[in-house]
Amino acid sequence: MSEAVICPNILDLPGSRIRVVTRASADIPNMIKLWFGEGDEPTPVFVREGAKAALDRGETFYAANRGIAPLLQAISDYLKRGYDAEIGSDRIVVTASGMNAIMITIQCLIEPGDSAVIIGPLWPNGRSAVRAMGGEPRDVYLQPQEDGRWKLDMQQLFDACDETTKLIMINSPGNPTGWVATEEELKQILDFCRERGIWILSDEVYGRIVYSGAKHAPSYYTLAGPEDPVVIVNSFSKSWSMTGWRLGWIVAPPRLCTAVEKMTEFNISHPTTFVQWGGVSALNEGDDYIDGLVERYKRAADMVYQALAPLPRVTLGRPEGAFYAFFALDGLTDSVELCKEIAREAQVGLAPGVAFGPAGEGRIRLCYAASLPKLSQALERLVPLLK
Amino acid sequence: MSEAVICPNILDLPGSRIRVVTRASADIPNMIKLWFGEGDEPTPVFVREGAKAALDRGETFYAANRGIAPLLQAISDYLKRGYDAEIGSDRIVVTASGMNAIMITIQCLIEPGDSAVIIGPLWPNGRSAVRAMGGEPRDVYLQPQEDGRWKLDMQQLFDACDETTKLIMINSPGNPTGWVATEEELKQILDFCRERGIWILSDEVYGRIVYSGAKHAPSYYTLAGPEDPVVIVNSFSKSWSMTGWRLGWIVAPPRLCTAVEKMTEFNISHPTTFVQWGGVSALNEGDDYIDGLVERYKRAADMVYQALAPLPRVTLGRPEGAFYAFFALDGLTDSVELCKEIAREAQVGLAPGVAFGPAGEGRIRLCYAASLPKLSQALERLVPLLK
């Protein structure tokens, strides 16, 4: 008898360090959960009604790998309206979440022996997808500044790339840092990647959630041409409060879209048909919803900043985008243990900084997408423990 | 300037040969489409209502990677009721379709240098998933018998395995062949795989669709123990008419479930939350629905057999399971061209045999899951062209 084996590189992949905390805290009553990247209000009714109407119409059959035509059109219209970008459906593929978009893109671009340079600290799943495909992730960390903000060392980024590098992964606005890349920075990276034949995987799922008053963060939707080596990943999760729906899209050059479309067939065939109709409602009827959401997140960001930044042990920059406070705490060396303790003592669920890479240790991530009264209550419970 | 590259093994993957026919026939009016593996009736109302109620309750948040607890319980109950199998939730992971289950399983089991032995002719996507992960698929073809049925040469199967072989892929009842493995055959394969440390990936999505009067086809649900190297793939698509929902599950040893759960996080995080509630309704309220469906498919199988088997050019065995007639046609050498011609001349959409591997050339696949009046009309149009 021999034991059938599981691939060692899959067994070696680290599980989520956030889940370590949530599992340890599963039985604590009255928890206010700010550990995942989502709020506490369900998807808006007009989106749910869009999916329900599709169910009533019998939209329950197989659909095209690339996505249903009305959704491709709605994405194209949304990018024209929101970004003034002309992007036809030959450059769009609908995916079953931003994560699914990242995994399928990496399947198309990374094979064993390839490396991917990742700008961190970052939500760790893209890194794991690279490792699962046998690639080597290389971390380049944003540098924390004295005011708590983050800065990219461009030379360090470029120096991390060599002839094995197939991909640079960038997430702006960033999870967990809230870092927002400038247009100039995005252009410099694009010039470098054009020259070197390296793909940019630009995760722009928080692209609409910025506090500068701009309609969106600087974006490759406006900076990259149709044939540039850029894959923009988007998701319905954050801007339309649709985390549980698992729906997203990519924008990429047509030749890569053709490969992603093919690989979609071999991964999931297509995202759920009537879920895609919910996406049509979100895009076509959701502009005001996003405006309201960003307004609320801005107030939430202020509330968190005002509560935490003055604490002597805390270092926190004013968030520029996304919906996380990723604060450093003097003397913190085991963020998982502290998050477990905070859950026990204060019934507030937070994510340990080490979940976002070794450079995140000594920090805690708080997601402020919850409704304001709940957030306020969480801060009241939390502040005494951070003093 | 350098061009950023896409992985050659992904570019080399063949696209679907069925889609070649469907794309060429897109503008033909009044087509009766029997080319995909689905019927023409939407998902039953009680399942759609289950998902709609979940939407109304606000089940739109992130969920556990492994699937929501009520669905894990419903799967366990269903397997007890339908198969008399005791399978706890430590051996179940919910997936976003059977395809997604196959892809994630292959991610866990196949790396470059590994081979997978595939019993064909077979729906080609599992083969493509093996290739996408850098593995080598090896085909072992069922032998067509004089009566049109299929037979597995067990020695040929075992001889195809060597020390690189990590996996045997089996699909019984089979798409496109309708072949149903006997319990004795499944046991022989299991004994071999236990001895050699080879995984069995048993695609049982048609497991309930058999015409012998038995409640289910011979199945590893009843034959494999909790620690046996067996992964059973199932799907809601076929038995509950939920193709567009993208929902399925695996049953596997706990150690593999842990790996699949982890990789689910890096592929899709989890299947759509309220879609899973539709799955709960399907399982808990759907037993009568399945019985009625199988009864109808049995009549459809008879109708197709009686119409096509007597034709001099046609060789077709009486289908034992699944819902396809995979008939040989004397003198046929280009099934793609013939399917295009049939679409043009008779407005009936069929799948070319070569889509299921080289051993499928000379054949055509007809899916008889459509409602009986539509199927009858399709046969009336089709028979004159096959004479």
From TrEMBL, chains A, B:
Superkingdom assignment: Bacteria
Position of the signal peptide: none
Sequence ranges assigned to domain Aminotransferase class I/classII large in this UniProt record: 38-382
UniProt record, GO biological process: amino acid metabolic process
UniProt entry tagged with the keyword S-adenosyl-L-methionine: no
GO molecular function, one term: L-aspartate:2-oxoglutarate aminotransferase activity
InterPro entries: Aminotransferase_I/II_large (IPR004839), AspAT/PAT-like (IPR050596), NHTrfase_class1_PyrdxlP-BS (IPR004838), PyrdxlP-dep_Trfase (IPR015424), PyrdxlP-dep_Trfase_major (IPR015421), PyrdxlP-dep_Trfase_small (IPR015422)
Transmembrane segments: none
Requisite cofactors: pyridoxal 5'-phosphate
One Pfam family here: Aminotran_1_2
Keyword set includes Transferase: yes
EC number: 2.6.1.-
Record-stated family: Belongs to the class-I pyridoxal-phosphate-dependent aminotransferase family.
Protein name: Aminotransferase
Naturally occurring in which organism (per UniProt): Ferrovibrio terrae
